[in-house]
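User: My instructor asked us to take a sequence, write out its structure as tokens, and then describe one feature of it. I'm not sure where to start. Here is the sequence I was given:
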Amino acid sequence: MYDLCLIGERELVAGFKLVGINDTFIATPENGTSLLKQLFNSKKYNVIMVSQSFEKYLNSDEINLYRGSMDPLVIFIPLPGIKEEESVYDLAKKILGIDIGD
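Assistant: Let's start with the prediction itself. The structure tokens for your sequence are:
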């Protein structure tokens, strides 16, 4: 079983807690980026899900590091009601390694 966590705003965290993800961290984009770095370096989690709104507070080197990492896998999740930048198809390909088509 993979160790999974989520870092995000209260709205995002609440939904994931309802489906049984217990390792959740409520954070703002400003302080969540340091928490992301800490959890990434801890190697405690195989998958770290992060609110997509945090991305604009990261520099390009950090974004490339997190987006290219496979251990842990870092997935940026859009807030409910916010336009997705990464499609469901792209997420499936990244997570599952399969192309489900457009």
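For the description part of your assignment, you could build on this observation: The chain has a mean pLDDT of 84. Try explaining in your own words what that tells you about the chain.
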